[in-house]
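Quick one: structure tokens for this chain, please?
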Amino acid sequence: MADLPDYYFRIRENGATVFRVDTENRQRRIEMEQIATINIRNGDVKPQGDRALTPDDLAEIQRWMQARVALLAERDIDDILRAVDYMNLTTHWVQTKAGDDQLESVTDSLLLAMHDLRTVLVRKKAERLLKDDGAAG
């Protein structure tokens, strides 16, 4: 049997359920024992039942949580960059293919969403500039 990891993390919203993987039993079956649930938003690690987590358990859970947070942050940026691509494709569609009825059905929604996004981006940019000026001066 291939070497399996000692822990398995079943992804769920805001975290995971943590299992300890055991293949060293008489039947040579894969057994997964639930040991904890974790919440990556607030960092909570809740042992299953009356279980006490070992230092190895906690270290592996912390490693997983750090890797998961980093992965989700990468995905957020990738999603935003895809949105930029989609905005460009939308611009091309509006300019080259969209009919009057199609434009009528999407124009107000697009304009409001773009205005909202622009307002937030400009405010955040101004806040960063003011913070940088304050740190430099």
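The chain has two domains: 1-82, 98-137.
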